[in-house]
Amino acid sequence: MTLATMTSNDNLDAASASVDAGESTPRQSIAQRTLGRFLRAMRDRSAPPVQGVSPRSVRRTPGLRREEVALAARISLTWYTWLEQGRPVGVSPQTLTAITRALGLSDVETEYARSLAATAAGTGREPWPRSRSVSDEVRLLVDALEPKGAYVVNAWTDIVYANATAQSVLAPLDAQPGTSDNLLRRLFLDPEWRTRIVEWPRVAAGTVARYRRASAVLTGVPEWEQFIDTLCAESDAFGTLWYRQRVAAEEAERQELVGPDGTLRTLTRVVLFPTGDHGELRVVMYVPI
Fold first, then answer.
1. Which residues contact 132 (CB under 8 A, 6 or more apart)?
2. Cα separation of 191 and 214, whole Å?
3. Using one digit for the tens of pLDDT, what is the confidence trace for 226-261?
4. Which one of 4, 5, 46, 153 has the largest count of C-beta atoms within 10 Å of its C-beta?
5. Which of these, 61, 78, 64, 99, lies nearest to 6 by C-alpha position?
6. pLDDT at position 7, please?
């Protein structure tokens, strides 16, 4: 019996794996295609053969073959191919879990895939609005963190508030509206930041990977899709990192920054969530080491 001819009894969850998802909204369709691209990228990563699949001595490309993933996840090759192609097929949580295990995804990568699948199915959480202001409570929190530099960003990484130290160490965050007041755009479009951030390539890669995970809920939102497309067109470096599909959790990170006065500062970047969860607004704080 071949993978393409597996019966429903042979599949882990044949009912959800083979049924067409039906009429989709534009946002659901985009999420479906995004999920397919992500799974393809994860499969293409260099990795040992999955458990239960015999290794091949010669491989023309790194990573896993679709056949190996389908076999390990106990789903049909045809259906898995459709999933990677972004076709409107339904996928249950059990089936998706089997696929992520076959691909050897980390917890944060699995969480990202689940978020995309939920949006594709129309069961995901509502996207955040593009907040341009903060509450008095958050403003007081950021000011109280002085003399540590801190600022607040929204889901688009617009810098919506910053304390005096952040403005001093990072340079004015509103000098160039549309660039300096947006963390991602400034990181990739402001030449000065490239010279002032020591190990800029590492910092940039980590920032994009964390942002991909944090912004999963915005997939398919027209304004956000335009934001990403525009930045990809304006910055080859961002486009390369974005299409690499790397996903990372939000963790404390050591960074070295050269201040406007030429002073080298070694800092720990820490992110706080004022609402107590991974909500839309987050406070980014720099703690001197």
1. 154, 158, 160
2. 25
3. 999 999 999 999 999 999 999 999 899 999 999 888
4. 153
5. 78
6. 38
Residue 58 neighbours by CB distance under 10 Å: 4
Burial category of 61 from C-beta neighbours within 10 Å (exposed 0-12, middle 13-18, buried 19 and up):
exposed
**Single-letter amino acid code for the residue at 123:** T
Q: Are 21 and 121 in contact (CB under 8 A)?
A: yes
User: Are residues 218 and 130 in contact, defined by beta-carbon separation less than 8 angstroms?
Assistant: no
Q: Output the pLDDT for position 283.
A: 94
Q: What counts of helices (H) and strands (E) characterise the chain?
A: 13, 5
DSSP 123-187: -SPPPPP------HHHHHHHHHTTTSEEEEE-TT-BEEEE-HHHHHHH--TTSSTTTTTBHHHHH
**pLDDT tens-digit series, residues 83-131:** 999 998 889 999 999 999 999 999 999 999 999 999 999 999 899 888 8
Burial 19-38 (b: 16+ CB within 10 A, else e): eebeebeebbbbbbbbbbbb
* Preceding peptide of 147 cis, ω within 30°: yes
Domains of the chain: 3-121 (1.10.260.40), 136-288 (3.30.450.180)
Q: How far apart are CA 215 and CA 225, in angstroms?
A: 11
- At 66, list the tokens: 């679709």
Q: Residue 228 contacts by C-beta under 8 Å, 6 or more apart in sequence?
A: 242
Q: What is the bridge-based pairing of β-strands 253-258 and 159-162?
A: unpaired
Cross-sheet strand order for the sheet of 159-162: 159-162, 149-153, 282-288, 264-272, 253-258
